[in-house]
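Researcher: I'd like a structural prediction for the single chain below. Treat it as a standalone chain; there are no partners to consider.
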Amino acid sequence: MATILLVDDEPAMRRLVEITLNSPGRFRFLHAANGEEALRLARSEPVDLVLLDVAMPGIDGFAVCQALNRLPADHRPRVFMLTARNTEADRAHGRACGAAKYFTKPFSPLALLESVERSLGSTA
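Model: Treating it as a single chain, here is the predicted structure.
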């Protein structure tokens, strides 16, 4: 079962994403309300994918993405940005930080689900 870490300071957004992706027995979800909590969770247990907001209190999503991409290869999750920040400069910054995908809110539930399933492949 693949583990997905949902990182957003809005609990309702984390819940919406979990509902969008939820398939019984397919994914395990962890939740973090800020960057510090996300990094602590990702360092303490295996995470396959991180869905990461940018604008959060404390460490922003770009810095979290960079930190996640510095983890040892066998402990490094794939990162998808899921944020309201939607300029081309934001997208470029996300790619430069190591994000594999960049989704903007409001997001297409089907596009997110398809990308998550493709990314996790046989892990899911």
